Amino acid sequence: MTNFKFLTTTLDKGILTIAINRVDKMNALNKATLEELGEAFQEVYDEKEIKGVIITGEGERAFAAGADIAEIAELNELNGRKFSEIGQEVFALIEKCDKPVIAAVHGFALGGGCELAMACHLRVVSSNAVFGQPEVNLGLIPGFGGTQRLTQLVGKGRALEMMMTADTISAERAMDIGLANFLVKDKKELIEFSLRLMKKILSKAPLAIGMVIDCVNAAFAGDENGYQTEANSFAACCKSSDFEEGTQAFLTKREAHFTGE
């Protein structure tokens, strides 16, 4: 794995943990950090030994407290569009990754940080997690896909409420409205739980997991027939070695051992 300036990465038994490491800036996402995230996920796509990814933040205060305001203050219409497109492209890489990606969120997940968490497939949050899309306080809107993903996750009314009021919500509220999947006590339990959850997912058939991700994403793709994507993916599973292994293991009452083929 590449050595990054703003990311800390560790790979253990197929699970890559990526921690945003700008503690002095509360892990705010500047352009360089976004680019490094994009590079890291290109490696996730390319490296077979990486089976799943956990994204978190270094330190105790924040997962990622938005974008870097000092950098944002210099934007104009032209480079503002480019900045938004860079974030959208990187977060699309995460969302479309055929390997499971879990956001382990503690502390502040605001603005771009909330958008990053939403791009992941699942969100595990500690009790001190705080979510929000406060961009209207700056005369802006979410620009890394947040207007779309927040609506998908919590519904139109709640998404409009969060984005128009700029109010933050607690971990418990995030659970109530469907923004978070699991709630744990503190950061130590957050990482331990996320690892257990990832190991559980990785015990399943890798091809099927990747196709589940594709099909769920297709439900929100305006140019794609999700039902046809599902049928095509189901058919592809039926010709895989994992399908044969899974069905035979069930019939013979033994544990399945999947190879991803």
Question: Could you explain the architecture of this structure?
Answer:
By secondary structure, the chain is an alpha/beta fold. Helix content is 48%, strand content 16%. It is built from 11 helices and 10 strands. It has helices spanning 31-46, 69-72, 77-95, 112-119, 146-154, 156-165, 171-177, 187-202, 206-218, 226-238, 241-251, and strands at 7-12, 15-20, 52-57, 62-65, 101-105, 108-110, 122-126, 130-132, 169-170, 182-184. The strands form 2 sheets. Strands 1-2-3-5-7-10 form a 6-stranded mixed β-sheet, sandwiched between helices. A hairpin with a 2-residue loop joins strand 1 (7-12) and strand 2 (15-20). Helix 1 (31-46) runs parallel beside helix 3 (77-95) and helix 3 (77-95) packs parallel to helix 4. The longest helix is centred in the N-terminal third of the chain and has 19 residues, at 77-95. The protein is globular and about 60 Å long.
Descriptors:
261 residues; 48% helix
Query: What is the H/E string?
Result: EEHEEHHEEHEEHHEHEHHHH
Structural class: alpha/beta
General form: globular
Strand content: 15-25%
Q: Care to count the β-strands? A: 10
